[in-house]
Design a protein that fits this description.
Layout lengths: L9 H6 L28 E6 L7 H11 L2 E6 L3 H10 L8 E6 L3 H6 L3 E2 L22 E13 H7 L19 E4 L5 H28 L3 E3 L2 H8 L4 H5 L6 E5 L2 H7 L10 E18 L5 H11 L2 H6 L1 H4 L2 E2 L8 H6 L11 H20 L1
Parallel strand pairs: 1-2, 1-3, 6-7, 6-8
Antiparallel strand pairs: 3-9, 4-9, 5-8, 5-9, 5-10
Amino acid sequence: MSTTQKIAGAALAAALGVTTLSACGGGDAKDKPAGASDAPKSKTVTLVSHDSFNVTDTVLKEFEQQSGYTVKVLKSGDAGAALNQEILTKGSPRGDVFFGVDNTLLSRALDNGIFTPYEAKGLGEVKPEFQLDKEHRVTPIDSGDICVNYDKAYFADKKIAPPQTLDDLVKPEYKNLLVTENAATSSPGLGFLLATVGKYGDEGWKDYWSKLKANGVEVVDGWEQAYNERFSGSAGGKKAKGDRPLVVSYASSPPVEVLYAEPQPAEAPTGVATGTCFRQVEFAGLLKGAKNEEGGKALVDFLIGKKFQEDMPLQMFVNPVTKGASLPELFTKHGVVVEKPENVAPETIAKNREQWVKAWTSLVVK
């Protein structure tokens, strides 16, 4: 997710205490998936990722049994920190595949040349809108939307319609209700800034944030503080007596609130303002200088395979990018479909990210 990522929100999965699983096993050569080699069954393939990567044990075991590879997962902090380490070790990577670079950091990764091009088997089944690198240095793995979430009970009690768009957030009825993360220190905070850039353009986003500041937006360092302490609609926020009924989080947050509630409610306690969203796409790539290149290719193939794609939503709270991969009922019942998220081209983000964040900091925080 950036820490999606991850969904996306990958930051969300990390905050819920998700742990990475690794298993080993063996299988017949005839059972090997496309992309796997005749490597010895004891051979290890290493996946470097941000902290939010997770996969069901049985799904990972099936890959290992069929391919003959043992998967080692090396977690390396948030997406930005993990990417920095790979750039510093360019040519002598710590693993074979890197997972977790998203479209806000993609151009930086590609410009530093840390990946070996590889056209994954099954790439034709990945939806075209997610294939942002025509040279196949990275392969899209998941997508998620950073959006404003709202506390349904608050707005029902106040008899106020919850906001649905970025324009709504600057209206008087929503004064002092929104908490967001710092764009300089938080993936969802940066994503929300980019949503405003995508909506209002390079000329208009500053004026928008001036209005948002005047309307009482609160800025905190990260997602955990915003969502689990300041937001009144989350389970954590209720315990912390949070008093902000609007928060920048993920479109997948409502299903997660249902999943971890005891007992599970019939309806999610939070909603999503679908006109406030920025779409994140996370990628994986074969690291240049990988010790186990063939194993790395097999692992990338696995990550866009239907088995892993359908496992992701309840493990990392993100959406599959492969055609035909279905979402669990929890997502279809309690989640939302964001039809028109804001997008900013990766190369535009790379060119302007630092100056945008610097200008945002001067305008909103200082």
